[in-house]
From TrEMBL:
Its cofactor is pyridoxal 5'-phosphate. The lineage of its organism: Bacteria, Pseudomonadati, Pseudomonadota, Alphaproteobacteria, Hyphomicrobiales. This is Adenosylmethionine-8-amino-7-oxononanoate aminotransferase. Catalyzes the transfer of the alpha-amino group from S-adenosyl-L-methionine (SAM) to 7-keto-8-aminopelargonic acid (KAPA) to form 7,8-diaminopelargonic acid (DAPA). It is the only aminotransferase known to utilize SAM as an amino donor. Homodimer.
Length: 421
């Protein structure tokens, strides 16, 4: 008897190229296990979410304990200890000034909430400011609102009439930062509502890295013009760029900050949007029209909050920062072998994130190279999903030197197979 085809519609997948995805049944540290007993090294932290490794025992225990006590409660007009502990913990560990915490369920909704907070702030303080400034190559999520502020590309092209207008600033390429700052200065004179950026590295847009100096200058220009500065730390948060939050490296305190992915150590979906008091106060009123109208059924789910509280404890009590530094150094060592290899360009790294662009024999060859590379790595027992011809490695912090050797060995083999001769 043959099984009928699966009804599952997978996200971000050219189904014709991946008709039979591996069935993953277990996760442990940096490794996944499939139903047929195969092992897969998770070199991209399962879409950048897993920080301390799959099924970290302290997070598993916190989830089990909370699940037996309180699974879910409406968060409108109610609260629970896990949400309170998490909000207090986040305010204590994020830059001073971010005093209020709004809960949602994904990175996209955290950014969507940030955009709504900015819109509400200006509406309620009586100024007509609606335009959002964003960086070229930016990615901020998959809802219509967040797709609008992301760079235009294949993922949002089909929805064009629904997307609202934003002003996009050139990416602050090394040596050409002034062009970005000049464009920002000019755009700020038009009284926009906010600037939204991924600090220090634009992830899904291609792993483009820029410096803390220009980030600090962008924040300063916003402050001078009274434009809200929103940091999308959905990917960068919780250690990815070498510090707990990327904004730390620039000494920048955003007006609004978004965190998701690593917030629960990657174990459960949860997101937060933190803001300064002025933004909360603009909404704090008995006037119903000023209510912040955003909620979803699972807002501040107690089990997810308990997982996040366990994550904060791990940060406080385990040598996470040391692991991150060691992982970054170990990646740097291995990247060195590729810097003079003409089959690769733009070999780069920030914190635990390494990236390099595969130079293909001819541009036409690149058309489907991303999915074909992903299939190649899958056959090698590795979870790596390139962004076009950009290969990147963003592993859990428990990844060992031996694990990294497997990853970089496979990248070298991929160059033999797909790269320029
Ligand atoms: N912002 C950034 C910077 C991201 O990297 C992502 C996810 N890749 C998102 C927002 C959206 O997060 P989610 O996929 O959890 O909705």
């Amino acid at each position: 008897m043959t099984a009928s085809p699966s009804p599952v519609w997978h996200p971000f997948t050219q189904h014709a190229l991946a008709p039979e995805p591996p069935v993953v049944v277990r996760g442990n540290g940096a490794w996944l296990e499939t139903a047929s007993g195969g092992r897969i090294l998770d070199a991209i932290s399962s879409w950048w979410v897993i920080t301390h490794g799959h099924c970290h025992p302290r997070i598993v225990a916190a989830i089990a304990e909370q699940a037996g006590q309180l699974d879910q409660v409406i968060f409108a007009g109610h609260t629970h200890p896990a949400a309170e502990a998490l909000a207090r913990g986040l305010v204590a560990m994020t830059p001073e000034g971010l005093d209020h915490v709004f809960f949602s369920d994904s990175g996209s909704t955290a950014v969507e909430v940030a955009l709504k907070m900015a819109a509400g702030y200006w509406r309620h303080t009586g100024e007509q400011r609606t335009r959002i400034l964003a960086l070229e190559h930016g990615y901020h999520g998959d809802t219509i609102g967040t797709m609008s502020v992301g760079a235009r590309g294949v993922y949002n092209a089909a929805y064009e009439p629904f997307l609202f207008e934003v002003t996009r600033l050139p990416f602050p390429e090394k040596g050409r930062e002034q062009a970005t700052l000049d464009a920002l200065e000019a755009a700020c004179r038009e009284a926009p509502a906010a600037l939204l950026v991924e600090p220090l590295i634009l992830g899904a847009g291609g792993m483009y890295i820029y410096g803390p100096g220009v980030l600090a200058e962008m924040a300063a220009i916003c402050a001078r013009h009274g434009v809200l500065f929103i940091a999308d730390e959905v990917m960068t948060g919780f250690g990815r760029t070498g510090t707990l939050f990327a904004c730390e490296q620039a000494g920048v305190v955003p007006d609004i900050a978004c965190y998701a992915k690593g917030l629960t150590g990657g174990s459960l979906p949860l997101a937060v949007t933190l803001c300064r008091s002025a933004i909360f106060d603009a909404h704090y009123s008995t006037d119903r029209a000023r209510t912040f109208f955003h909620s979803s059924s699972f807002t501040a789910n107690p089990i997810a909050c308990a997982a996040a509280v366990a994550n904060l404890k791990i940060w406080a009590e385990e040598p996470v920062r040391g692991r991150i530094t060691a992982l970054g150094d170990a990646q740097e060592e291995r990247l060195a072998n590729f810097r003079d290899d003409r089959r690769f360009a733009n070999v780069r790294r920030i914190g635990t994130i390494a990236a390099l662009d595969l130079v293909a024999p001819d541009p036409g060859y690149l058309a489907d190279v991303g999915p074909r590379l992903a299939a190649f790595f899958r056959d090698e027992g590795l979870l790596i999903r390139p962004l076009g011809n950009t290969l990147y490695v963003m592993p859990p912090y428990c990844t060992t030197a031996e694990d990294l050797d497997l990853v970089y060995g496979a990248i070298a083999t991929a160059a033999d197979r797909f790269g320029r001769a």
